[in-house]
Design a protein that fits this description.
Blueprint: H1 2-21, E1 24-28, E2 45-50, E3 63-67, E4 78-81, E5 90-91, E6 105-111, H2 120-130, E7 131-142, H3 147-151, H4 177-180, E8 186-195, E9 201-208
Length: 214
């Protein structure tokens, strides 16, 4: 009986949260709201945060790359993929690095690829290395609460709304950067969280802040 009452109370709390906040919560400010004292997003809800300077344009005259593009490469981008069957523009193993020179890329798409790589810190440092100052980095990853994040046998890690704060100067966890070997200096510009039982996701937009630039 106690468990049943607790279940009803939890359902009521979630319903009340959804009725008060709606299915789409939108925020703007210097940093996404912390969720330590908030209810989790109800199933099917989205939380969207944008920095006051968003949207931004990537620097012109630089490369545009689509990491792990497969057969769905974004038009106008160079596709990087490990599999020859997709005939990528650059065939490479991203777990060993991005085979491009420093400061040469202005726009990066990393859509559902980071969860397949073994070392997140390494690849985030690589993204930063190839970025020009002000480069735009758009990342999509599965949310840890979604079934497919856990079910896919090729996934190496899970992500929550806190994950990318370790890599951003305006994030909540930068105090540990040096100890963790994190050398990248991104600014978090936008974050979208979709909480879904099967296909929840997190989308973030970052910009690179390179040394020697304002």
């Amino acid at each position: 009986m106690t468990r049943l009452i607790a279940w009803f109370v939890e359902c009521w709390r979630r319903l009340r949260h959804q009725l008060v906040h709606g299915l789409i919560n939108e925020y703007s400010g210097e940093l996404p709201p912390a969720r330590e004292d908030e209810m989790p997003l109800p199933w099917g809800a989205r939380s969207i945060w944008r920095h006051p300077d968003f949207p931004i344009e990537p620097p012109s005259g630089k490369l545009k790359i689509d990491l792990g593009a497969g057969d769905r490469k974004e038009p106008g981008f160079l596709g990087l993929d490990i599999s020859p069957r997709f005939a990528p523009d650059i065939q490479c193993d991203l777990s060993k690095g991005i085979p491009l020179a420093d400061d040469t890329v202005g726009h990066i798409l990393a859509r559902h690829i980071l969860e397949h790589l073994p070392d997140l810190i390494f690849i985030m440092n690589e993204l930063y290395r190839v970025c020009a100052n002000g480069a735009l980095v758009q990342i999509d990853v599965p949310h840890v609460d979604s079934a497919m994040a856990v079910a896919d046998p090729t996934h190496r890690r899970y992500f929550s709304e806190e994950s990318f704060h370790y890599f951003c100067l305006n994030g909540r966890h930068t105090r540990l950067n040096e100890a963790y070997g994190i050398h990248c200096r991104f600014d978090l510009m936008a974050e979208e969280i979709f909480r879904h039982r099967r296909n929840g996701y997190i989308k973030v937009t970052l910009t690179a802040r390179k040394e020697g630039h304002a």
